[in-house]
Structure formats: C-alpha cells, structure tokens
Amino acid sequence: MQNMAGITDIKSLHESEGSEVTLRGWLYGKRSGGKIAFLLLRDGTGVCQCVVEAREERAFEAASGLGQESSLAVTGTIRKDDRAPGGYEMLVSAIDVIQAVDDYPIARKSHGVDFLMNHRHLWLRSPRQTAILRIRHTLVRAMREFFDERDFTLIDTPILSPGAAEGAGTLFPVRYFDEGEVNLAQTGQLYLESACMALGKVYCFGPTFRAEKSKTRRHLTEFWMIEPEIAFAGLDDLMDLAEEFICGIVDAVLDKHRGDLELLGRDPAPLEKVAAPFPRITYSDAVDILRGDELHEQLAADLESDRARLQEMIDEITALEDRRDRSRKGWQQDKLEERIQSLREEVRDLDTDIANRPAHMRDALNFKWGQDLGGDEETLISRQFDKPVFITEYPREVKAFYMKPSPDNPGVVLNMDVIAPEGYGEIIGGSQREDDYDALDARMLEEGMNREPYEWYLDLRRYGSVPHGGFGLGVERTVAWICGLRHIRETIPFARLMGRIYP
RNA sequence: UCCGGCGUAGCUCAAUGGUAGAGCGGGUGGCUGUUAACCACUAGGUUGUAGGUUCGAGCCCUACCGCCGGAGCCA
After folding, report:
1. A89-105 burial: b if 16+ Cβ within 10 Å, else e
2. Residue of higher predicted confidence among A351 and A38
3. How many angstroms is C1' of B45 away from CA of A107?
4. Which of A30, A292, A402, A403 sees the fewest Cβ atoms within 10 Å?
C-alpha cells in the first residue's frame, strides 16, 4: 500500500503502475551492462527488478559499488515489462544507500548445512527460508483460528514446572531459587486439564522442551506444540476433531501458498489427497500389519526398486560429473556441481535407508504385542496409506499414567496417534484421560510415582470429574511434512538441536 | 554412549604418496535489456589439531576436536 510519501512495497507494486514510488529493502542480486544496471531489490514482500540507466548519473554511480544485502531506498517509476521477474519493474531515478555492503557471506548458490546453520540469522533472508516462514505463519494462524472459531479458550500453561509430566521423558533442569531443580515443560497438558474443567474447551500453544540426545532429522530440543483439551469428550470425538483440524490447516496452506510450495519443490498432490475420513486402525491391527506377509512382500519389492534407483542415481552422478568436467561456463559447472552434491546426498540417504531396511524388516516380523511402536514401525505402517492414519489403543504399559484404559479391554488405553504420510512420522498424540480418582491413584502407585506433587491434579478427579481428553500436535513436524522438508531444522527460525545453540 | 561419513581459499568442491587447483563470491577494466548475464585480468591457503610411517603426506596410520547421518531415546 502506497503512503503519502510515495513509499510502497513490492507486493502491491501493480497498484503503482505509471507513478513514481519509493521501495525500501535489501539488494538481493545485481547484473550490469556498461550503461545499464539491474538491481534485484527484496523487501520481504517480494523481489523487484530496478533498472538504473547511466543517464541517471548519481543513481548509476551509487549502484555500481553495491554488494548483496546492501540496504537501500530506491525511487523510480513503475512500469509493466515482461522481461522483469514478477511482471513489473522500476525505472530508477534515485538511490539512497542506507548501508553499503560488500562481503555478505551467503551467496546465491548452495552452501553446506554447518555453514548455513552458523549463519542462520542471515540464512533467514533467502527465498526458500522466507517461504517456509510464511507457511509456518499460515499454519499457526490456521491452527489458532480453528480452535478460536470453535469456542475454545486459549490457556497459557507454565514453562517452568515442578515435576515430569509424562514420567519417562528427559527434561531440562533449571535452578529455581531455593526450591532446587525444576524443569522446562514438555507439555502443557496437565495444567490444561485444570482449565478444561473451568472452561470446557481449551487449548494451549507454546514451546516445549525435551532433553533427549536425539540427533535425527525429526528432533528438536525446543519445539512448539498446540494442545486442545475438551470436557465431555471421548476418543472418537478427539479423532473427529483431529481429522477436521488437519484437513483445515492443510487446506489453508494449499489456499494461500501454491507459489511457496512450488518454490520449495513440494508436490502439492499428496496434500490434496488429505481429506476425511483418515484410516483408523488399532495398535493390534498395526501389529498384524507389521507381521503380515503383505507388508513384507511389498518391502522386498521396494528394496529391489530402491536398489535399482540407487544405481540409476549413481550413474546419473557419473554422467553429470562428466558434463561438469567438459563444461566451459563457470556458472554451469556450479549448477551441475550443485545437482551432483544433492544427488550424492540422496544417494547417501538411500544407502543408509537400504542398509537399515533388513533390520527394520526383521524387527517388524519379530514385533511382539506390547512393545511400543517406534519411528521405524510407524513409517512402515504409514507407507500403507496415502493419508494421515490414526493408530489407537496402545498397550497401557507403554503409555502415560493419565491415559484411560479401554472399558472393553483394560490392557489397552483410549489413545490415538496420527502418523503423517510420506515418512514424516507422528504429528499428533492424544488420549482420553483417566477421570476416575481411584483408577488414577492406583495407576500412579503402580508406576511408583510420588503422589505429592500431583495432589492438585488428583483434585481434578475429586471435584466434578468428567470424561475428557485432548491431543497435542507438533508444529515443526507438521511444517516439515507440509513443506516436504528433509530436515526439521528449517521449520523453525532458530532451531535448537543437540550440540547447537548458536545463533 | 555406539556405528558410519566428512573436515582443502570467504563459499561449493577437485587434486595415483611427487610443483595445492577450478567455479562462485571479492577487486580492476569492458559492454544499454540483463534473468545465478557475459568477456578479460587479478588478489586470495599453516589442507581441523597433535603425533607417526615415508626420500617425500591434502592423501597412509594413531589420538583428539568439529560437523553430518544413523542406532539407542523420543514428538
């Protein structure tokens, strides 16, 4: 939107066709001829090609020495031109250099992971990262709107909390005055249950912390979770809600971010298939699938085709290397090099995957009822479906103390996990909660838990207890799935990973 | 903690145990419609660290450090 001083942004450039305006932003790229220069200015809303002709002497002079990411205010006339990226360009009359830069470290080419992560504060400026951040924003907004529109009340649960909520999890200790050690929260759920009894339908949304030493593409030590909790709800209600929720947020991204998805190289087709109803299978069904012939025949076939694919990729690399060595143009070599590198990375991935496959298959065949489903098992199962899949009613031994056992089968609890398609793993975990005082008390005793720090939680079962339940959705895994990212570290502005806390 | 891979110019990568190179980026010059522009020239290095083998080590061996991936653990 153009203001009184003629300042506008690139997103609304078409409104200014024919008039003189000022854009403020950063130099993204530059090309120049002897008497003409093309500046690519980015301002966070888009990129505009600014044409500087030599007859504008002062502007031309100013443009000549500018390096990438110099900050500028550029004034000129907007005109339509098919040769300009975006369809509109600026014929520059004046350049105000706010800060000239000549040594910006991140080039418009590929870089290594370590380098980029160490420059995350600058990496955020690149087109791919801004696309992800925009999609993350839309997702978060869609999530909040989803619950707001359904009369949920937002409850902010504490981050400093006295005890472990889910028993086994590894937590970050924090010294708290003279109280000794407290922990960073790994879920808001227990507090949320209190608010649920106050307001009926509530949700919390905030960061959570896990101190597990997991170095994988699916793990962060600090991640965001949105958790609804509903009074007078059973497991089926929770699944219906989760289903609608996931469809809603996927639609929001498909609606607004076709361009961003394309920029990310994300095929939208699998996302378009995400529609209710999702498959719902029980843990016992899952065990049958894992041990069944059908899965193993399919896995064997996959293994064959993946081996063939691996060989194809290796051949392609050899061909590309040959082309690279014969290529004269520097930037073509660089481009080929980039494809070679990314192919090599894929080869390494596929290679480890193939190497791990026999162990996975063996584990699946030997899977015993009662074991917890790990990431590998979940992935195997999700490959059987092209939508998110619910897995319900896990053995109570592998699940948290607060989950309610099934009335039909006390050996299992009324829980559900949602596994995202395409190998992205669990994005939702939830359950109906144990609402009976005696049953909860007995279970805590059985787990050897110290009851004292949970007296307040037990109070919820003393005073007007009702059936209730909820679930938590991991924001970053959802972003990774929807954006089709290999690694979760790109889904959050500043990823906190084991061994990485800078910047 | 364990297993595997990798550490070479600012960046991305080459280099049979035998004179450390290319492209990008930087600098200088040329070019009025470029799309990661192009052309010419140019500067840029304690090959992660410390030992060892060898006439000779970026390359082989040992230890350590760092990063990545996986396992375990987990969402």
Report:
1. bbebbebebeeeeeeee
2. A38
3. 21
4. A292
In a domain? residue A428: yes
Q: What was the pLDDT predicted at A2? A: 61
Averaged pLDDT, A228-253: 97
Task: Look at strands A201-209 and A153-154 and give their pairing.
Answer: parallel
| Domain range for A12 | 7-99
> A418 with A308: CB under 8 angstroms?
no
Which of A356, A376, A407 represents a domain boundary (last residue)? Answer: A356
Chain B nucleotides close to protein (CB under 7 A) are 1, 5, 10-13, 22-28, 30-39, 66-75
Strand order of the β-sheet with A153-154 is A153-154, A201-209, A222-231, A468-474, A425-432, A415-420, A389-392, A280-282
Question: Taking a C-beta distance cutoff of 8 angstroms, is the pair A214, A497 a contact?
Answer: no
Domain with residue A464: its CATH number is 3.30.930.10
Biggest CA–CA distance in chain A, Å, is 86
Domain count, chain A: 3
Shortest-distance nucleotide from A496 CA to C1':
B75
| Position A396 pLDDT exceeds 70 | yes
Specify the higher pLDDT residue, A59 or A341: A59
Examine the domain organization and report whether A397 and A458 are in the same domain.
yes
